[in-house]
Write a structure and sequence with these properties.
This protein has 208 residues and is of the alpha/beta class. Helices cover 38% and strands 16% of the residues. A six-stranded parallel beta sheet has the order 3-2-1-4-5-6, sandwiched between helices.
Length: 208
């Protein structure tokens, strides 16, 4: 059987309980052999400066240290430029040519996926594993995107370009919200991993 590699990218500035729940949920389903978390160097969608890569990687390690099938990939950080998904997928495909690649995204990203740079090429290299609280059938999906949705996991993993929807009641939290709370010296309980909370405090991150 073809090995299955999940890919989860983002700024993780900082990593929070919402990120954890997405990956913990998918990991628990045991449908993916390995998940690689890939932090951006610079996000193409965000204007603010990220804190140092070493801090973000360390917080990811602290959050997922109990998960054996989760690895961290610093390709985009070493690239030192804006991170575009297609470039990362091309790099991964060279290394893992025999593996099935699943890009893990949220439901909001699915509805605006056709606005992503080179979205059709992205689907030629990977499939989309979409996690959301509830999928809004009233929202209009691009016809091509809609046709790629499958409810059969074997079909999903049979080739690239498929979309599988995973409904899950996830925590609604944002990194921006967390940074605002840190500046106000507010409690982060329930928003970030306890070890991450301690790390942020020890290194005085986001306080200025």
């Amino acid at each position: 059987m073809t090995e299955r590699l999940g890919i989860f990218g983002g700024a993780f500035d900082p990593v929070h309980i919402g990120h954890f729940e997405v990956i913990n949920f998918i990991s628990g389903l045991e449908i993916i052999d390995e998940i690689q978390i890939i932090p951006n160097y610079l996000s193409p969608h965000k204007k603010e400066t990220l804190i140092g890569a070493a801090h973000r990687l360390k917080m990811l390690e602290l959050t997922f240290e109990d998960h054996k099938n989760i690895k961290f990939n610093d390709f985009e950080i070493k690239n030192k430029k804006k991170s575009f998904t297609l470039e990362t997928l091309k790099f991964l495909k060279k290394i893992y040519s025999e593996k099935h690649l699943s890009l893990i995204i949220g439901s909001d990203s699915l509805y605006n996926f056709t606005s992503w740079k080179n979205w059709e090429q992205i689907l030629s290299l990977s499939s989309l594993l979409v996690v959301g609280r509830k999928f809004d059938v009233k929202k209009k999906l691009n016809k091509t995107i809609k046709e790629k949705i499958t409810s059969n996991l074997e079909d999903f993993f049979s080739s690239s370009g498929k979309i599988f929807l995973l409904e899950n009641a996830l925590v609604d939290v944002s990194s921006s919200e967390i940074k605002k709370k840190i500046k106000k010296n507010e409690d982060l309980t329930g928003l970030v991993n306890k070890r991450v909370q301690e790390y942020i405090s020890i290194h005085s991150l986001y306080s200025n």
